[in-house]
DNA sequence: CTAAAAACTTAGCACTGACAGG
DNA sequence: CCTGTCAGTGCTAAGTTTTTAG
């Protein structure tokens, strides 16, 4: 019954597309809609049967092959792991895995001889295979390891040229070690040369010290007062603490926002004693200015501290870092990302957030769930307290979790990006994107076909996928209304977010997007699309209100299910990764020119990076000092130009002089003047490049794409190819995160 | 299954300390 | 020396995807 009904609704051709019942539904709550989707989806599935599954047989084969490989070669590993377990119990941090031996034998591969002909040579096949294929969550073939290692060793000296200079100072000439008793293993652990866990196990051993709690509240000195209705009033400790949160933010804009004030006041009152509650009924009558002043003074005082005091604080932080900032996971000491519990305060949502100003409550040990090995030494809760729970779940990666009170979501303490567990995942992400590269043509053809489908839901799916692919939009999960800011992604686009122009600015079939995406960052774009897409959009928008969903027959779970059928591991966000990385690679190829010097090459890199950031809509507020700093730079450039022409004049003079005198001394003078000119030219060039770069970067944030979307091996390969020191591209943190890529990518790496 | 919860990635901004320039 | 600037980093919100529970 309902099946027939909705089937007719599904038809694209003929008659009004949205029957009354559809419209009705749209006005209803979202949940209703979803149920309908799901039903339809179900029906679809059974109708279509398994035509899609053919594609997979191949993959399964591959998997099997890999398994074989694994079984044939892992015994050594197993032993090694056993060893490790033992060692863990002894808790020695620096026991080294004995991998080296395995790298001892020579690989027949000749590295030097593969520069050209990258694409089809069998050698290249090898190097491709060496990259992990990712759906084999298991092993990388041994051989590879060997190759990698050898190469790595050969390469190191070159790569580290610059580094060595720096490190010498640090390591060599600082025997006292600045108190940083760093007992890190001398050689960095190359987890990427090791076997990975299968079957969802994330670790076998995990030991840590638990979280660091926010410092307890320190009551204000009695001379700092709060006034209500013009009269001083002493607050209870709890009420006072919350009041200080507000007082600290006083010169921030959102303390003027209604929603913020309302939420704050409501939550504040919850912390008050009945007496306070009875008295304090109007936020407008509250005067926090004395408190505000006090905190400002505190900040000043902190700035004005002596070096010794600052050093002391620094040392204390370092001590805490050493004590709590690391864990032992499977025999290796790993850095924890966020070992400090988020302190209490007022929630600052982004954009127009309905919950802004709410009290984010203090987290106590009783809220904390600890996750660690059974056979590890459990972290101690602070004296007189206890953990909510200690569990031993090695199917997850977190060490500590608690439930946050604003959204009721769970927060986690996890490892640093440089850790094995994050790195492997990251690597895997790029491998999935590379697999998409291999079948993206097929998928594109498919969705183009689907634009013609007679089923509405298929068409919507296909158009949405087209946007995700072409524009790198996010998937766009539906969100609960009133819980978060009103932002959308692809699947949750509403009619009001796009405008259609059959013709504009000399282009046909233009779609104008204007909506708020993640973090309430505006996405604005005018793009010409294919005619069929355009027609489809018109169809989707027919008879809808502005606030109706554009893709009313689609959500992220439908879309992702579809994608999963097209390629194993494929989800919407893989397209972002894929398109970002492939764009970087293409742009680098296009923009880098042989003869440019290093700064110019780096400008090219940044431009390539920028192309990606624009694609992904990674924006930033222009720095507050932007105009000024631009001006400063211009001044410098002008000065440098002056200097250059002066130097040129001098050179001319010297030349003339040398012509006359013809002695050694004057020749030398010419040489040195020449060098001076050259040097100044370089400097000028550098400044100009810097200016260009900065100007172009005004509202674009490069960091996000660099960190999350660009296969680091592309950048590493580029650096190696052009002899650019990796430090010019990645700072220290980034180098740590991408250590795997820096170690393994060769100059001919191809995404 | 399907919704909700959990897990994990991605995101911009505020703060800070090192360092360049006066 | 002091001051301003800016890159680097910490923070935590806000997404997506995966897993679980009902």
From TrEMBL:
Keywords: Biological rhythms, Coiled coil, DNA-binding, Isomerase, Nucleus, Topoisomerase
Example GO BP: rhythmic process
EC assignment: 5.6.2.1
Main location: nucleus
Compartments in which it is found: Nucleus
Listed GO CC annotations: chromosome; nucleolus
Domain DNA topoisomerase I eukaryotic-type: 346-723
Similarity-based family: Belongs to the type IB topoisomerase family.
Coiled coil: 630-697
Keyword Nucleus: yes
GO molecular function: DNA binding; DNA topoisomerase type I (single strand cut, ATP-independent) activity
Enzyme class: isomerase
Organism of this sequence: Tetraodon nigroviridis
Catalytic activity: ATP-independent breakage of single-stranded DNA, followed by passage and rejoining
Comp. bias (Basic residues): 24-38
Organism taxonomic ancestry: Eukaryota, Metazoa, Chordata, Craniata, Vertebrata
Biased composition (Basic and acidic residues): 1-10, 39-150, 157-184
Name of the protein in its database record: DNA topoisomerase I
Residue segments, region Disordered: 1-184
Functional note: Releases the supercoiling and torsional tension of DNA introduced during the DNA replication and transcription by transiently cleaving and rejoining one strand of the DNA duplex. Introduces a single-strand break via transesterification at the specific target site 5'-[CT]CCTTp site in duplex DNA. The scissile phosphodiester is attacked by the catalytic tyrosine of the enzyme, resulting in the formation of a DNA-(3'-phosphotyrosyl)-enzyme intermediate and the expulsion of a 5'-OH DNA strand. The free DNA strand then undergoes passage around the unbroken strand thus removing DNA supercoils.
InterPro entries recorded: DNA_brk_join_enz, DNA_topo_DNA_db_N_dom1, DNA_topo_DNA_db_N_dom2, TopoI, TopoI_C_dom, TopoI_cat_a-hlx-sub_euk, TopoI_cat_a/b-sub_euk, TopoI_cat_euk
